[in-house]
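Changelog-adjacent note: as of this version, every example in the card shows the full chain rather than a window. The one below runs 492 residues end to end.
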Amino acid sequence: MSTTSDILSQRREKAAALADLGTTLYRNDFRPDRRISSLLAEGDHLQPEQSDPHKEQHRIAGRIMALRKFGKAAFATVADSSGQMQVYIRRDVIGEPGFESFKKYDIGDIIGATGHLFCTKTGEVSLYGNQVVLLTKSMQPLPEKWHGLSDVETRYRQRYVDLLVTPKSKETFLRRIEIIKLIREFFTGHDFFEVETPMMQTIPGGATAKPFKTHHNALGIDLYLRIAPELYLKRLLVGGFERVFEINRNFRNEGLSTRHNPEFTMLEFYQAYATYEDLMDLSEELIASICETICGTLTIIYQSQSIDFTRPWRRLSMDQALIDIGAVDPDDLDDESRVFSLVRKHGITLDKQAGIGKAKTALFEHLVEDKLVDPTFITAYPTEVSPLSRQNETNPEITDRFELFIAGREIANGFSELNDPVEQLQRFEKQISERGDDEEIHPVLDTDYIRALEFGLPPAAGEGIGIDRLVMLLTDSPSIRDVILFPHLKPR
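Full-length structure tokens:
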């Protein structure tokens, strides 16, 4: 069996031989006039061994994915972004010089072919080539079968190869593109404006996460890659944009996992004169419609679990979820000492400043979260863990906030916005005073955001949806790396 080194050496030799024959290895003067998918559809009426009676000439271009040579003739399977088709090459048709060059082509080379349609004995619509030209010589071999890239990390590191040889991977990213298109259409159809906010910020805010830091030489200041666009989007509500959304890249200097990549894509949207309950309804409508369009059904299988997106979705307060799903005694939730006793019983570690709100949230994450398979809204989050959310008017210990869970993971987070500048300032100051060594809480207060609130933020609600995690669900992908074209990996 030839080693990779042998194959590379053989390809270099072929490239040199082609150059000696006067063949340009990297040319850019061939223009295809048809996509392969449309050409296949056009020839669908042809019967076996039948040619297009008009011999109409077509030009296609693509990568050779397979080669079968028979001495004086050959079949090359050529792929463009729309599909694959066979090209039939005969020495007596393309001529001796052209065929001599063709014999030195390899799987992976990109070619242009001109010819007419015909149907083979086996009923495959093909192109009967009368001209074949080399457009790009491939010096690296494609894997003959997918086990040629059996290392999962190699698939992520060499995504360009993964996309070439793995139809499922390509389909996943085509679905991702369609999902983002549907999101845009949904929000513009609901009178939202798509906007852009800074990716480099002087003060990272809108979430609790450790940021990436850089320095701007001309301004002489440190800047941070955004962890969330929230505070800027709400500034736009102050400025009179009453419905805004952004499909944005966020950056968080955190660990890697099947659900976490340091660079990820979020949808965030904000609506004036709306509450968190309005956004729960909107989220159901958005995600259910995307699911039905992309998957053709509201019931999907994700990693062997059946998930039903049929509306309405279940809604539970955090306390009720701890009782119904976490099997916590209701009396325990009303007593702070009992709550902390449960935390210790389950081996959960909390920071020293944690109150009952953080304790309940930790219990929920430990006892309930992974059991929420069908879409479920968890509401009434403690104020202690919701620094930007509006307090509930009847119970100040909780906020008008929800998180959406599907397949045991958080997909969305939304809430009625806190628009009282005095209270927001107090919450920021409290969060900073209790920061300690927590690098996820920025030590500088965003005074400009407080100033914006003083001009008047209309009553509003906002939400963030993790696009990567949503794509994972709708493509049955086990890892976030399967839905990010170029995920971050440790260097080899």
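Structural remarks: The chain has a mean pLDDT of 94.
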